[in-house]
Amino acid sequence: VGLPLLVYNLVQRMMHEGFYVNLAIFPAVSITRTGIRFSITCNHSLEQIESLIEVLAEQFPQTLIEEERTLEDIYHAFRKTDIYKPEVKKITPIVPMRLPSFQLQHEKNIRNIPKDVWNTYMHDKGSYDWDGLQILEDVYQNNEEEHNNWDFHYFVLRDKKGKVILATYLTYCLTKDDTLVPALISQQIESRRQNDPYYLCSRTLVMGCPISIGDHLYIDKSAENWKDGLSYFTDKLTAIYDENPANVLNIRDIASSDLALQSTFEEQGLMKVDVFDGFEVSLKGISTSSEFLERLRSDQRRFVKQRAINQTDQFDVRLLGAHDIRFLNDVYQLYLNTKDKHLELNMFDCSKDLFKEAFYSPNWEVLVISLRADSTNKPIALALNYKTSSNYNFMFAGLDYRFVESHDTYNQLLWQVVQRGIENGSSRIDLGLTTRQNKRKFGARAYSSVAFVQVKDDFNYKIISSMQNYDSNVKEIPKFHEKRVATLESHFGVKKLTRIG
After folding, report:
1. What's this model's pTM, rounded to 2 decimal places?
2. Is 388's pLDDT higher than 50?
């Protein structure tokens, strides 16, 4: 039958006609190759079997019509099997019902979309307002490194009256297939990448871009036909994906609480995958540091005072601008220190050119900490942030690990990010992913999201799933967190992960 939404419809139709049939659905079969199955026993007569086939022959075309699908879609889904190839036999066209009228604008340069239009829906979500995307386009083009060349795809969906009901963007880029796996496995893969830098990497069409965080998909749910519009967009997107050399389609950062949105993506044949929680700090109604501290629990307030506030007299904190470009190499090295040390979120190095642009951009802020006793003012900690009218986004951290334990520089960095968010009048700080314990001490709240994925060739993931999460230097390794296990099992399409320890 093809997509899950078709098999749900067809099974309901068959049951209504008096025939109970089963679903053949993921993970028993590929998520885009669902079907129905039925068992024949000695209790069935030939007449009953013939009646089943007659009803199926009647209901199947009606299902395609109602769900706006064609036989060509099914042949395409099963194209790897000879008997389903279109050239084997002539396809009798089944004309689907007309979809509600939508207009999808697809651009490959943000300059082709008016700034006021894009910012109406994306100006306060993260680093991907119109100006932020313009910088990213300039940075991630015409580079020597393959992973630093991205193709941008912008989408604006309008109804027949011209009202925008959906807006988003995706990038076509090279990504690491072990981005979400345990660090011990990524360590094994990274050792191989010393000689083969793109080992176990895939070309990916990803919602947002590799360095962005936040809600990348605007949908006007006040519109009565928003679900039809989303289905229309998803159809167009999967068609682009099929024609694109990308191996992976990744629609990410969908709120875990948005069940209606998740259901639509699942019906379109996308597999749900859990991802890391993000962390945010609310600054609504807060204008001073004292007010922020008053909102914390007593244990949190005690932690912030002891581990950050009481140490501030040891540091100089400043924002670097164009006149400080001499510190670019120092700042970038701080970022690499942290990025290379933490492989639980394993990604390619962010382009150094983006850090350079941040020194000149009014929206990016290069916040650094240096030791007051050091006359050179050399930075020992970095927070690269992006500010919007009401949000402050902590994008990248960087640390000189000689001072992390002795001077508690990471907690000092978090405190200074909070301070800067308050000074900017922000109502929210997005602290990004990982380092859960530290961020919670600063009153951060976790927000969970999921991704929806399609993979054309899962060979790389099978290799990764066969690797052991084992460190010979450690006598006992705790069991994986249950959520992480479920994520990996669904992401790699395996039924059970071996637990080591």
Report:
1. 0.82
2. yes
